[in-house]
Amino acid sequence: MNIxxxxxxxxxxxxxxxxxxxxxxxxxxxxxxxxYQMSALAxxxxxxxxxxxxxxxxxxxMRDSGDTLSWPDLDCPVVxxxxxxxxxxxxxxxLAPLLAAEGxxxxxxxxxxxxxxxxTLDKFESIPGLTVDLSMxxxxxxVRDVGCVIAGASAEIxxxxxxxxxxxxxxxxxxSIPLITASILAKKLAAGLDALVLDVKTGSxxxxxxxxxxxxxxxxxVQVASQLGVPTSALVTDMNQPLGRMAGNANEVNESVQVLxxxxxxxxxxxxxxxxxxxxxxxxxxxxxxxxxxLESSLDSGRAMEVFESMVAAQGGTWSGxxxxxxxxxxxxxxxxxxxxxxxxxxGWSIIEIGGGRKRLDxxxxxxxGLEMLVRIxxxxxxxxxxxxxxxxxxxxxxxRDHLYRAVKVVDQECECPRLVIDRVSSAISGEPS
Length: 434
Ligand code: URA
Description:
Layout: H1 3-11, H2 18-30, H3 35-48, H4 52-63, E1 79-83, H5 91-101, E2 106-110, H6 120-124, H7 136-146, E3 148-152, H8 159-169, H9 177-189, E4 195-202, H10 211-227, E5 232-238, E6 246-248, H11 250-260, H12 266-281, H13 288-301, H14 303-314, E7 328-332, E8 337-342, H15 344-353, E9 370-373, E10 380-381, E11 386-391, H16 394-407, E12 408-411, E13 421-427
Parallel strand pairs: 1-4, 2-3, 4-5
Antiparallel strand pairs: 5-13, 6-9, 7-11, 8-10, 8-12, 9-11
Helix pairs in contact: 1-3, 2-4, 4-9, 4-10, 5-11, 5-12, 5-14, 9-10, 12-13, 15-16
Bound molecules: uracil.
């Protein structure tokens, strides 16, 4: 192959055939395509884009660059959910055991914090003793025995994405819909799913700041996953403020457990129920109100919590009540008024500043740190009323206090709280089996 000519073709806006895409990704995975050529191609893709057929070929090649799971011995549907990431987004920790409590198998391959957003694996690891580094065999066993697992992508799953993701991070080639789509779906589809639901976030704390961009990403993800044989739906949801009250690590696990016990903040419960209902709708013709009722009853009866505890135990952890958080510091409002907006990304960077996320790849986390939101957009606040609470040491609070003030805008006029679910993109067409 002459990869230089193929890079030039993409640079000049031409389409790459399926065979060429497969050859490039195969070569990248086995080391015969060097990083500098892959980075040139990634930049050409970012500028020129890809049509849906090219994105399908890229996703398929990345998925097939490693091992894929299959579930011949399971007699229930295998499902998963993916979120494009936000602040306080703890839904995966609740939805995996909730779906398993409904009799579905959930091999949830999750990620760590990315940019200002938190990661499910980092949160889940707040539980003492728990590991998310599981072999393919351990993942298979746990799904069979418990019904769900939340684990990192092992070296065997989509290794081309592991390398390409790290390369994109340092070559300014992350924000490309074809590259994001292939990256997300390669890992998810390698898990041998029967259905997938996507939570595509939009707003100040999301990668896609504008709803239009999020809709485009959602449409591409749904289209490509469906063409690769996995019925998929996406909800485009609001990330203009943290989801729920808690954002961090240990405090998010505590809040997830509240939801699993039938309580917790209404927005977290609602989004979990809507994503679950959407997902089950892809594999089950039951009316969605019955599906939703089933999910509500699993939360309210404690069934989902029992599965959560079994999942934690299977991964080496013990759940023995709420995890400890660092010392609390309140942030009093400097003026009375209405909460008009929040810079959720800035709140995410503040959590990283107090140790809840990484500035460098090898940073270790202080999982007891985080924020608790005491107001939401649209709320009336009085001067001196706490807007939020930071869990960290005094020095950390000093470092982030001004950032926190800048992140919450209080105005004189009344404001509306943004809608939680903005749009739904669905297509249950099945193409080639995964
Ligand atoms: N998450 C991924 O796994 N890949 C991307 O490119 C972006 C978000």
